């Protein structure tokens, strides 16, 4: 009898031991993670319009390891070399994808967002950020260096409003010289016609409204409103959905102008052109913005040049002076 009791106790202890071992084996603990690797099909890339719809770069990667099978999120990061990825541009990769092929237009947009030179190659770095959850620190692959040059991809957005009859077809535009999502332009608002909206095309299919606090949204119904009548510079960032509205004026200055070098003769703005009628004398003049020398234009022969030489006036009299800052052209027409 005593022997039977001892055997029963021993069997129970063995069973408990086996159950404990089995439970311990199924316990899952994530490690700090081992980074994956990244390879590129090219080390130098110069883009142009002919490559917009062609495959220009292929990136291959191996997944990071966090100690067990889990869904890993991979994000491609790009940054100017030497910035230590402080403000990278990011592209989320498809789940389980170990290769990413970029067409020219898509990779050019990424390079434009880094504000790289259009005239010479710049060095950028690329790496993969891998993560499994917010509770586990991400890991980063090796960083690849790419010598790259984007090309300008000018884009526009439009500003239909009360100042022009709410017609997107004829609305003034804001320009992004590099197509990086940041648009700037000047709109002339007339008294009592201060409200407007932003459209990405010359139609009402999509219209950005005032979301408050300097924010814009395609779902916001409220119109934007200029502070007063006059010329205002609009800056719209579609990356951050933000808008800034700032008063702006261009003026004549110089010994050929009514107030000489000590005062500005303000110009009026309408539909892309600054205009003023003024009595000019033989001498020299310039155009400058906001009564400061930070932004000024000189030039000759009707072509305006930023911070250029003085414009010469060779005959006195009444003139109609125009300045097209977008196309850097000016005219002096004697009345």
UniProtKB/TrEMBL annotation:
It comes from Pedobacter panaciterrae. Residues 23-129 form the SusE outer membrane protein domain. Coiled coil: none annotated. InterPro entries: SusE. CDD domains: CBM_SusE-F_like, CBM_SusE-F_like_u1. This is SusF/SusE family outer membrane protein.
């Amino acid at each position: 009898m005593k022997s039977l009791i001892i055997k029963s106790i021993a069997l129970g202890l063995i069973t408990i031991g086996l159950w404990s071992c089995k439970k311990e084996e199924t316990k899952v603990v994530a490690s700090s993670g081992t980074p994956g690797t990244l390879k590129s099909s090219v080390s130098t890339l110069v883009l142009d319009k002919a490559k917009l719809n062609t495959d220009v770069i292929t990136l291959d990667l191996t997944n990071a390891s966090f100690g067990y099978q889990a869904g890993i999120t991979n994000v491609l990061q790009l940054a100017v070399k030497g910035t230590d990825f402080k403000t990278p541009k990011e592209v989320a990769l498809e789940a389980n994808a170990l290769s990413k092929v970029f067409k020219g237009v898509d990779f050019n947009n990424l390079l434009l967002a880094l504000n790289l030179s259009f005239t010479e190659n710049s060095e950028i770095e690329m790496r993969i950020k891998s993560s499994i959850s917010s509770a586990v620190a991400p890991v980063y692959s090796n960083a690849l260096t790419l010598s790259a040059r984007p090309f300008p991809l000018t884009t526009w957005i439009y500003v239909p409003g009360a100042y022009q009859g709410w017609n997107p077809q004829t609305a003034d535009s804001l320009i992004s010289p590099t197509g990086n999502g940041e648009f700037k332009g000047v709109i002339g608002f007339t008294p009592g016609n201060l409200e407007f909206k932003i459209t990405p095309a010359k139609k009402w299919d999509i219209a950005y409204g005032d979301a408050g606090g300097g924010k814009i949204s395609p779902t916001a119904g409220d119109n934007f409103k200029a502070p007063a009548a006059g010329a205002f510079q609009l800056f719209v960032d579609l990356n951050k959905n933000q808008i800034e509205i700032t008063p702006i004026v261009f003026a004549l200055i110089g010994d050929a102008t009514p107030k000489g070098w000590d005062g500005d003769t303000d110009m009026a703005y309408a539909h892309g052109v600054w205009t003023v009628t003024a009595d000019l004398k033989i001498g020299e003049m310039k155009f400058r913005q906001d009564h400061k020398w930070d932004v000024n234009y000189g030039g000759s022969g009707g072509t305006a040049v930023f911070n250029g030489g003085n414009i010469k006036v060779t005959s006195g009299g009444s003139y109609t002076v125009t300045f097209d800052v977008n196309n850097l052209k000016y005219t002096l027409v004697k009345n």
